[in-house]
Amino acid sequence: MIVDGVRTIWCRELQRDDISVHDDFFALGGQSVIMARIQGAFIDEMGVEVPIDQLFLNPTVASISAYIESLGAVTPQ
Question: The whole model's pTM is what?
Answer without folding.
Answer: 0.90
